[in-house]
């Protein structure tokens, strides 16, 4: 295998990892505020079908991505009203949200099955894209791939440096204390949940508009659940979460190539690999109970009733 | 100086707060002057904390008015209270463990400040008032006393004109209490008013200029505590005379519980490792373990009860049997009975009746026959506990969650006593219990000792330990001090040990 053959492998790895990164970043923010939203898969599916439909009818990918995000926010809003204002159980509500999203997206997407679109194209950056080897390797991606790297640094700045990031972490750790010193726990959690919805919707739209520009029922294929696992096994740290996403993307692509080269292992077993490898590696690097306790939002999954 | 000449800084008129099940405050009046240290005295559940939360804007009153510097105000939120110049140090700290000191403080500032400037101001204020803290440390690695300093410094940065301290000394050594008082007196001399909430009479007499006494949500008196006696203050607080414990000297019998070089590493990063603990409790004596919470009490109790068994079985002997690896049920069979600190959740199941709660630690008694519950004997047993220990409740079918803290504690302690233990371990026997019930529980423990039971009490209340213990030790940072006879030591010495100042040589001497 020549070095040039690595370029498409790397490119597909990054493409496979990007939607996971977006969804996981969104869920990370949600969970840091103390809310566990298991509806990521559902929000991604609805984002995928809404994005595809709008892009198909308007011919604008930009509007498609906006619609994906908006529909993710709409689903997250349902979740937020139920769990934050009406204090329903977060786990049950999240599961129901996924089931709802699966059904809604299948229903709304009936007419789009088998339709194709021109998908999101890579950016060509003057000069940089022309560098031999490194040009195609690093500077031949679509805008959302670069966006996910920007999102990583933005999150690190948000949690590490900004006041509102600090407030969000405080709310996730001890909502009662945050309330006592005068922050609106419910208001902040609403923001975090809606942000998570927007990111999941965007991740879904990336699947149906960039990776494979078409709509297939259930096309997320469990990526929402992997995003959830990435957040936990990445110990709520944006960098680790992104690394986990790339690992998952990488193993997914490698096993495809493996199947293509005729390795004699059942393809079903190979398809399991990315899930196993990702979870195994992330569990290994975050075994330290201290890291987990220092980063895990202590109030995760618990409803909070502000007393007045 | 006659502080009464100036206008009141804060005046409450007829403040009433009603919760669905209880009237927390009823027509409460209270006046605080500038530069005054004003005590709010009352038992647990008298409505002190609710009143303070109303002043700090956490809770809104149902009726009554509040005047701040002669203007009527409605405080909608803690942020508003802070803007007006009110600061509060909470009893259960409102700190975030995974954040640094500076981050914690910055969260409570209303005008954001650059982190380097903030760190400088924290150091400046903490030095000025003798409250040394490092702004860059993570809060979870700090002792409770240090955390309290963070809370106080956080308030002082906002330059308060009224500082509310909610039971501030329950986490401090006697020496640290004196230092805290110095800081508070200094603040008062600078014109800051202080509302000092406590149920400890001697502290209030030592520190406060005036006092408002609450009982069951109502004001029962406003007085100058330095001109009152302990007895007269107690009468205002509990409505009757202060009860006393009766205890005579006894010669202890054989060793019932022996801990031998017990070391336990904890997996909880916020926990404490136990190091080489040696302890003997004999039949017919009460041994007390003092210490500030978070110094290994939780871990030691888990090791003794069997919830966290040791690696070697010879580290713990119960009545001569090596029991280090036994679980709680096996230890119960050897006659060890345990009353945990958390009443609801560990000591009792909130949603079960008192009768079924009696069964929880009595499943190997006559209440279970051939694997089936004998409901009539459960009822008889629960009713006997209720009667003997004067538990105020709706009978044996009342849910554990419906009882007040004191009554539930009487039931739990009573339950274990009725199983005729050989050894009894009690954690925080009277925490959050009103004075009357506390005396009853203490007297019950003394009677148990008189019957020849070996009793081990872990408590943060030094006064209580000196009241009921034959011998006292201190746990500090996971190590146990020498065990000394209560009559041969003093609050001052135990207080010194609580900050960890006992040497290993001493403990060897004590065992020799």
UniProtKB/TrEMBL annotation, chain A:
Superkingdom of origin: Bacteria
Listed InterPro entries: ABC_transp_permease
Topology class, membrane: Multi-pass membrane protein
A family per Pfam: BPD_transp_2
Gene Ontology CC terms, in alphabetical order: plasma membrane
Any one GO molecular-function label of the UniProt entry: transmembrane transporter activity
Keywords annotated in UniProt: Cell membrane, Membrane, Transmembrane, Transmembrane helix
Membrane-crossing residue ranges in chain numbering: 6-23, 35-56, 62-84, 91-113, 133-159, 180-208, 214-234, 241-257, 263-285
Cell compartments where the protein resides: Cell membrane
Name by which UniProt lists this protein: Putative deoxyribose-specific ABC transporter, permease protein
Provenance organism: Sulfuriferula multivorans
Lineage: Bacteria, Pseudomonadati, Pseudomonadota, Betaproteobacteria, Nitrosomonadales
Automatic annotation (TrEMBL), chain B:
One Pfam match: ABC_tran
GO MF term list: ATP binding; ATP hydrolysis activity
Keywords assigned by UniProt, alphabetized: ATP-binding, Cell membrane, Membrane, Nucleotide-binding, Repeat, Sugar transport, Translocase, Transport
Topology relative to the membrane: Peripheral membrane protein
Subcellular localization: Cell membrane
SMART domains: AAA
Gene3D superfamilies: P-loop containing nucleotide triphosphate hydrolases
CDD domains assigned: ABC_Carb_Monos_I, ABC_Carb_Monos_II
Signal peptide location: none
GO CC annotation: plasma membrane
Domain annotation ABC transporter: ranges: 10-241, 257-502
Protein name: ABC transporter ATP-binding protein
Annotated organism of origin: Sulfuriferula multivorans
């Amino acid at each position: 295998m020549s070095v040039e053959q690595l370029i498409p492998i790397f490119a597909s790895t990054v493409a496979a990892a990007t939607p996971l990164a977006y969804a996981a970043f969104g869920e990370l923010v949600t969970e840091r505020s103390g809310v566990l939203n298991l509806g990521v898969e559902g929000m991604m599916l609805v984002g995928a079908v809404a994005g595809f439909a709008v892009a198909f009818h308007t011919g604008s990918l930009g509007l498609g991505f906006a619609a994906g995000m908006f529909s993710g926010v709409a689903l997250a809003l349902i979740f937020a009203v139920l769990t934050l204002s009406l204090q329903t159980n977060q786990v049950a509500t999240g599961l129901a949200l996924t089931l709802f999203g699966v059904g809604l997206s299948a229903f709304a997407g009936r007419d789009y099955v088998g339709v194709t679109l021109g998908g999101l194209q890579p950016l060509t950056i003057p000069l940089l894209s022309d560098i031999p080897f490194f040009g195609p390797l690093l500077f031949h991606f679509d805008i959302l791939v670069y966006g996910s790297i920007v999102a990583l640094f933005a999150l690190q700045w948000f949690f590490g440096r900004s006041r509102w990031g600090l407030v969000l972490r405080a709310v996730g750790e001890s909502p009662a204390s945050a309330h006592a010193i005068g922050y609106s726990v419910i208001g902040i959690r609403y923001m975090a949940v809606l942000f998570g919805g927007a990111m999941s919707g965007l991740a879904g739209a990336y699947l149906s508009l960039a990776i494979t520009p078409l709509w297939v029922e259930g096309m997320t294929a469990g990526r929402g659940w992997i995003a959830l696992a990435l957040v936990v096994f990445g110990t709520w740290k944006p960098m680790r979460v992104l690394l986990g996403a790339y690992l998952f993307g990488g193993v997914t692509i490698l096993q495809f190539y493996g199947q293509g080269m005729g390795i004699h292992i059942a393809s079903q077993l190979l398809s399991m690999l990315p899930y196993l490898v990702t979870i195994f590696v992330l569990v290994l690097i975050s075994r330290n109970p201290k890291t987990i306790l220092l980063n895990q939002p202590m109030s995760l999954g618990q409803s909070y009733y502000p007393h007045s | 100086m006659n502080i009464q000449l100036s206008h009141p800084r804060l005046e409450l008129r007829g403040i009433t707060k009603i919760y669905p099940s209880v009237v927390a405050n009823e027509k409460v009046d209270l006046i605080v002057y500038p530069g005054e240290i004003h005590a709010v005295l009352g038992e647990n559940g008298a409505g002190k904390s609710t009143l303070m939360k109303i002043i700090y804007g956490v809770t809104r009153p149902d009726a009554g008015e509040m005047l701040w510097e002669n203007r009527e105000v409605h405080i909608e939120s803690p942020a508003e209270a802070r803007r007006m110049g009110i600061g509060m140090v909470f009893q259960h700290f409102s700190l975030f463990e995974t954040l640094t000191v500076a981050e914690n403080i910055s969260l409570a500032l209303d005008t954001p400040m650059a982190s380097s400037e903030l760190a400088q101001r924290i150091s400046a204020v903490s030095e000025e008032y003798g409250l040394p803290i490092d702004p860059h440390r993570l809060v979870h690695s700090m002792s409770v006393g240090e955390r309290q300093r963070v809370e106080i410094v956080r308030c002082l940065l906002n330059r308060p004109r009224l500082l509310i301290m909610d039971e501030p000394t329950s986490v401090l050594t006697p020496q640290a209490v004196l230092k805290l008082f110095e800081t508070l007196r200094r603040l008062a001399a600078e014109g800051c008013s202080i509302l000092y909430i406590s149920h400890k009479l001697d502290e209030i007499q030592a520190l406060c200029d005036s006092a408002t006494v609450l009982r069951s949500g109502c004001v029962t008196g406003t007085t100058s505590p330095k001109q009152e006696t302990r007895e007269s203050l107690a009468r205002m607080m509990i409505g009757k005379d202060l009860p006393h414990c009766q205890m005579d000297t006894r010669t202890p019998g054989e060793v019932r519980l022996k801990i031998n070089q017990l070391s336990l590493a904890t997996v909880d990063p916020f926990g404490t490792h136990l190091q080489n603990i040696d302890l003997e409790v004999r039949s017919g004596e009460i041994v007390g373990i003092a210490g500030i919470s978070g110094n290994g009490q939780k871990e030691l109790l888990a090791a003794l009860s069997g919830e966290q068994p040791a690696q070697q079985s010879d580290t713990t002997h119960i009545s001569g049997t090596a029991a280090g690896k036994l679980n709680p049920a096996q230890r119960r069979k050897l006659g060890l009975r345990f009353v945990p600190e958390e009443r609801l959740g560990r000591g009792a199941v909130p949603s079960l009746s008192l009768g079924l709660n009696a069964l929880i630690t009595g499943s190997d008694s006559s209440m279970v026959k051939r694997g089936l519950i004998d409901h009539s004997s459960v009822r008889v047993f629960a009713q006997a506990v209720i009667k003997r220990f004067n538990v105020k409740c709706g009978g044996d079918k009342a849910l554990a969650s419906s009882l007040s803290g004191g009554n539930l504690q009487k039931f739990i302690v009573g339950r274990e006593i009725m199983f005729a233990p050989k050894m009894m371990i009690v954690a925080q026997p009277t925490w959050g219990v009103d004075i009357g019930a506390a005396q009853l529980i203490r007297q019950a423990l003394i009677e148990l000792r008189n019957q020849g039971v070996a009793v081990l009490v872990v408590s943060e209340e030094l006064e209580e330990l000196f009241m009921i213990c034959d011998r006292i030790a201190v746990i500090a940072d996971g190590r146990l001090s020498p065990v000394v006879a209560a009559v041969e030591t003093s609050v001052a010495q135990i207080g010194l040990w609580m900050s960890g100042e006992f040497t290993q040589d001493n403990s060897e001497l004590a065992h020799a």
